[in-house]
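Work Package 3 (structural annotation) set out to generate three-dimensional models for the target panel prioritized at the project kickoff. During this period the team completed the workflow that converts sequence records into C-alpha cells, so that structures can be stored uniformly alongside our sequence database. As a representative example, we reproduce one entry of 372 residues exactly as it appears in the project archive.
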Amino acid sequence: MTGILSPLGKFTMSFIDPLLQNDTFLRALKRRRTEHTPVWLMRQAGRYLPEYRAVRKKAGSFMALAKNPDLATEVTMQPLDRYDLDAAILFSDILTVPDAMGLGLYFEEGEGPKFERPLDNEKDILELQVPDMNKLHYVFDAVTQIRKTLNGRVPLIGFSGSPWTLACYMVKGASSKDYRTIKSMLYHRPDLMNHILRINTVAVAAYLNAQIDAGAQAVMLFDSWGGVLADGAYQSFSLDYMREVLRLVKTEKNGIQIPSIVFTKGGGIWIDEIADIGADAIGLDWTVNLGRARAQIGHKVALQGNLDPMALFGSPEQIRHQVQLSIKSFGQRAEGYGHIFNLGHGISQFTDPESVSVLVDAVHEFSRLTPG
C-alpha cells in the first residue's frame, strides 16, 4: 500500500490489489489517472453470444444456469475470452434476493422474469423477512470460482438490484408497462411500501457484503426502474434507500478498497443528488451528456456510461464514430476524474458479436489517443 495525494490535496491510501494484472477499471473508479479508458458492458455475458446460448440450452433454463457455479463461471468468462474487456461481472440476476425470500422466481421465454407468489396482500408484506444468505450460496460459490478462474486478469464486479427496483417486481410479480400496481401502493399505502423497502435494503446490503466476502472487487446497484418515479418520490422511495445500502456495504476487505457504482436508468436529472449518496461512481444512460455531467459533479464521483445500446446496430465506421464522440465528450483523462466506458443500459440480445469487438477496440484506441 502506498500513500498518495488526492486531487484535493488530502492524504489518502491506495488499496488497489497489487496482484491484479489490469487494474484500469478500479483506478478509474477511484478517479486515478489511467493509460486508457476502461470498458465493460452491462449484460456482457448474454444471449447475443452464440457460446452463451449453447450453455443456456445445455443448462435447460436460465435459473438452472444461474444456480450452477460451474456454468455461471463459464458464461462470465465467455466475453472476456472474446474481447479485451477491463472488468468481469458476475453472471446472475438482479432478482435472486426476492427469490430467496420465497417469492418463487421463474422465467418464461420472451416474457422476462416472473414471481409465483408476488406481494399482493398486506399479510404477506408484513411477514416479509430478510432471507437467509445460505439460500444464495450458489451466487457466492460462483463469485469465488469466477475470481479464482480470472486469476488476477481483470477485476470482478458483484451486483444487486436496488431496493426500489426489486420491489417493482415483488409487488407486481413481473415487469410492468405503467407501474400502476406499485405506484398505487406508494401513494395509497406508503407504510407498506416503506416496509418492503426497509427489508430489501437490509437484504441487498447483506447480499453485496457476502459477494465481497466471496471475492467481488467492486459492487454495483442497478436501479433499473428508479427513473419511472416522480421527483420527490424518487428521493424518498429509491435514492434514500440506496444511500442506506451503501452505508451498510463494506468499503474495504483485507486492506483492499471495494468501490461501488450506482446506476439509475432515467436518472440524469438527479445526478447531483446521486453523486452525494456515497458511491464511487454513477452510471449514466444515453440521455446524459458526459461532458456536462463531468462539469456538473466535478471531483465527487467517477462516471460510467453511456453509449446508446442501439448504436451497436450501426456500421463499424458509425460505431467507431459514436465511441469517439463519447470519449471526446468526457474530455481529457486527469487525476481526480474517472470515466468507465459502458452502454447506457444492457446490451441487446440481437447485437452482432463483431460489433462489440469494434466497440471495445475503438474505446481503447481513441482513449489512448486522447491526452491523459
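The chain has a mean pLDDT of 93.
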